[in-house]
Amino acid sequence: MRCPFCNHEESKVTDSRDASEINAIRRRRECCQCMRRFTTFETVDLSLQVKKRDGTFEDFQQEKLIHGMDSACRHTRVSHDQVRALAYKIKSDLMARGVREISSRELGEIVMRHLQETDVVAYIRFACVYKRFKDIKELVEAIQLIAPTTNAEIENEETTHAAEEK
Predict the structure, then answer these.
(1) pLDDT score at 165
(2) Please, which pLDDT band fits residue 135 given cuts at 50, 70 and 90?
(3) How far apart are CA 9 and CA 29, in angstroms?
(4) Which are the contacts of 87, defined by CB distance < 8 A and separation ≥ 6?
(5) Does residue 127 come out as left (phi exceeding 0), alpha (psi in the -120 to 50 range) or beta?
(6) Between the CA of residue 26 and those of 5, 18, 34, 72, 129, what are the distances in Å?
(7) What is the pTM of this model?
(8) H or E stretch at 17
(9) d(CA 144, CA 134)
(10) 51 forms bridges with which residues in the sheet?
(11) Is the pLDDT of residue 89 over 60?
(12) Is 49 in contact with 100 (CB distance < 8 Å)?
């Protein structure tokens, strides 16, 4: 570790402690040249990189994911808190799997899978933007892919609603 005082490249660790409140290791170091002491904090870099369509990379931004999902979920039964929880779950699942790099295509597919399970309207809205449908035919095809599930859910809701009215 380079000394911040004399810029010498060699230092020795004199003390190491867990700094759990900031998820780091606190190290007390001494420069091998000027003998001055300084403190460093060591953290694990678990950054996740997203490979965009144009081939460039950018850091995963949970707020960007939340914003996109929020837009799709606007005026649906999905609350902002549910969107935040979904975004957290998506990121946590990726981190638990040890994923360090993911394509925007794969990330979009994961989001669509979660939205399809949560709210079909939000799923369709997200799919429209994400898949960049060129015409109504592509939109209808996407709806037809989920139609059997959606029809079963609607019939189940209608049956439940009719039973409640009796």
Answers:
(1) 59
(2) confident
(3) 12
(4) 62, 65, 66, 69
(5) alpha
(6) 19, 6, 21, 43, 45
(7) 0.59
(8) strand 11-19
(9) 17
(10) 57, 103
(11) yes
(12) yes
